[in-house]
Batch of 2 targets.
Target 1
Amino acid sequence: MSRSARLLSLLESLRRRRYSVTGKVLAEELGISLRSLYRDIATLQTQGARIDGAAGVGFRLRPGFLMPPLMFSNEEIEALVLGSRWVADRADAPLATAASGALAKIASVLPENLREDLEGSGLVVGPSREPKPDGAISTAVRKAMREEFKVRVDYLDAQNRKSQRTIWPIALGFFESIQVVVAWCELRQSFRHFRLDRIGNVQPLPTRYPKKRRILLGQWRASEGIPES
Amino acid sequence: MSRSARLLSLLESLRRRRYSVTGKVLAEELGISLRSLYRDIATLQTQGARIDGAAGVGFRLRPGFLMPPLMFSNEEIEALVLGSRWVADRADAPLATAASGALAKIASVLPENLREDLEGSGLVVGPSREPKPDGAISTAVRKAMREEFKVRVDYLDAQNRKSQRTIWPIALGFFESIQVVVAWCELRQSFRHFRLDRIGNVQPLPTRYPKKRRILLGQWRASEGIPES
DNA sequence: TCGCTACTGACGGAATCTGTCGCAACCGGG
DNA sequence: CCCGGTTGCGACAGATTCCGTCAGTAGCGA
């Protein structure tokens, strides 16, 4: 690989990661020595890329870019198509529609050859075995999450006890056949998760919850020991 | 000026002009010889830049090398993030990397407020229960599909009989825990599907298969009664 | 304090780049 | 049909850059 190609791919590697990467990892990824990596970083910096390097932590590309990114590779197109097909198959109707809408927008900026890749992609998703869960609940929960509003739900717990709770939904997890909403539960005053198929009814409340969802998400991650993805 | 810096500014020069420029002009602008300019153009082309050069006319950068800004709805962003996370979790390593790469590229052409939606998306994919299948086989099959090449595989059928077949892979299906490749089997002279975890070895052949993959895909769909997605 | 990591400098051998020359192929206009 | 302008390619020798290794400094977090 030529050096200039390598610089571009280094930029991509940095762009891809939202948090710090150590030089050693990058060097291995590119197949060069650590010393050369530092030289490459220096080169990019002199050309205008804003790269933070902190000792003991790693490198990070600050948003604010030297160049608009290059066009998608055909593998990236494949990944997007496959992912969208999965969403179209597994998620509730509005989200499924959004998935194909997003794909259409991407297609419209693609050069001819890549558009062919997109349209003729051979990566398909097998149909889900389980029947689709109630889409209305999923849609309502996502809406509340997006806008950071509280909702009131009728819930049936694992022991089949009914309860009614006010929760602050902060994440929605997709598993093989079920979906689980992670939320702060006002009743229990702690983070809980609720299977979507055990929620009988969702009533959106007009009250915003008092913290940023991102903050809550971070706290939940910390409490469960889940690293930043 | 280092060569890599020069390549970037050559790209800028080409992008700035809507119509053809002669090599001589570009060479003078960059302060290099004509021969070196041709070499630089060739380098950019091998790196994916689509540059038309017509004798007697000049060079021109065709659109589609750099990504234009994109606009999505919040729901479309959510769909893309969710889909990409699923791919990043379930597919083989290169495809998983491509998924996050695509997302990063999308992020960098998004306006600020939408970028926040992308980074703070609360839609997550539960970890797969099954161990990941052998990524090398999946990668090799995808490559053959993309380039329409035949491959030779060692296969263990449902009755545990070993066989070696030359197949034309045309599609790869992702199911809950397994992946299945759909292919034309030269041995059986018909479309067959092969579980990826029962393929012991994949040997890429240097021969292209004689029909377009899209045509074969259509024939297979017809033979199975699957509608166009 | 310790471990990890970002940085920098120097050096010699390897790899790449550069300009020059020559030549073929192609386009448009005379 | 020819001719000037242009892209494109190969070869070559000298200049330049690049690379890995070794050594050392310094900052961050625990």
Target 2
Amino acid sequence: MALHEVIAESIREQIRVGELTIGSALPSESQLCERWKSSRGPVRQALATLRAEGVITGGSGKPPVVCTTSIPQPFDSLLSYSAWARAIGRSAGQRTLELALRPADPLVAPKLGIDEGARVVQVLRLRYLDGERAMLERATFVEHVGRLLFDFDCDSGSIWAYLQSRGVNFSTASHIIDAVAADPLDSEHLEVTEGSPLLRQQRTARTADGEVIEYHDDRYLPGMVSFSLENTLDVRTSLMRNAKP
Amino acid sequence: MALHEVIAESIREQIRVGELTIGSALPSESQLCERWKSSRGPVRQALATLRAEGVITGGSGKPPVVCTTSIPQPFDSLLSYSAWARAIGRSAGQRTLELALRPADPLVAPKLGIDEGARVVQVLRLRYLDGERAMLERATFVEHVGRLLFDFDCDSGSIWAYLQSRGVNFSTASHIIDAVAADPLDSEHLEVTEGSPLLRQQRTARTADGEVIEYHDDRYLPGMVSFSLENTLDVRTSLMRNAKP
DNA sequence: TGACCGGACCTGTCATGACAGGTATCGTCA
DNA sequence: TGACGATACCTGTCATGACAGGTCCGGTCA
């Protein structure tokens, strides 16, 4: 691991354990240089990373200041429900309701960038958090990836971790967050009345080549899950508010 | 404006106008150095910024590659509905339903970090996008800031811009996104049936000193607005998924 | 023809040095 | 005692140089 990553992770750790609390000032750059026996480069790179994450702010004459205690989660926490639950110290559970190979319907085909009717593998899972119903997951995989799932017990854990172990490497993902009314399927499995509000996270995941591999439509029980973000003046946030046409 | 900012903005602009499309490779660092007659430092800093924004990816032997066409919006786009609408080329409208000075109720007091019963100024506005109903905004300001609003015509435009012009400087903000059922008030003004799903964005905005100034509870009509995010392997995202206890 | 290897090129990483500009503190002077 | 100004310190910014490691292409050899 590169030095600047070590430094950044060390500071994140200090925040995590409460050694650095919100509002407390970090050591100055020169002190950090001495502490890590490095030049100013890696130290500044580490601070820049933390600044881009919205963890620290300030500067310009003042030493940097911690401005949040919520440490951004790594890549997989937004992609893998299991990895996320583990990261926050909760337990994830799942019950597979369906695993099917079928032609892509008109809704998912454009999301995956494939022709309507091309074969896809679809998984329907009910997901739990600490044993409580939390989310209904509709996952669609392109055929050559989805086929791997027939050798996997989807009840046993993370599909994402399994696919990674089989050499499927996710690299980028797009997320869309909105609210929808529970349809009959949601209603049945999440045990809410039809039409009641659900928080939806749609996502498409791609490999480094840009090939779309999976499309998710995850619907959370409000009251169980939400999304949050810290926002500072000097950093452009990757979260965007969109208007639908 | 610093050179690295100029370079970053220039690349963003090239993406905006379509000169650089998704998947197309950027010029190499050395070419950019020559183009801007600068050393490698500013160029790398610009690329690092864009990478943190999730705009470009790649590297490590390969020249960087554009991986999204959605350019992150600056700070104010997540805080000001009017600024956001302008940024995406839509028109924002508003009708003020209420402007009141009253004691803080038990819901907003903890959000603002003030005592229950301390006075706050609350604004209720119905907001339009291109003339269509889009969102019901419940804004609460601490007294000394909110008082400024009594000198302002809330129907005329951006409260945020007005407060800035009066010297109120926002610096950081926290956002929580979830889904809620329309309550009677939502139902009446957004013209949906009670209990139907709404996308909610709660936010608290603070000054550089950390003083909380405003709390918003904005409820969007789903189908009008959503939130989106690009996510890459090597960058920690500031968006977090949270479990409610 | 296909596999393999080497070199050109690129980025990642780090060191060192330098100057400008903002911040805060402390001492001085009115 | 209070206001003001100089100074030390800090960060922002940029230049230059260097080496390691990854990628890609083309040429060579089997």
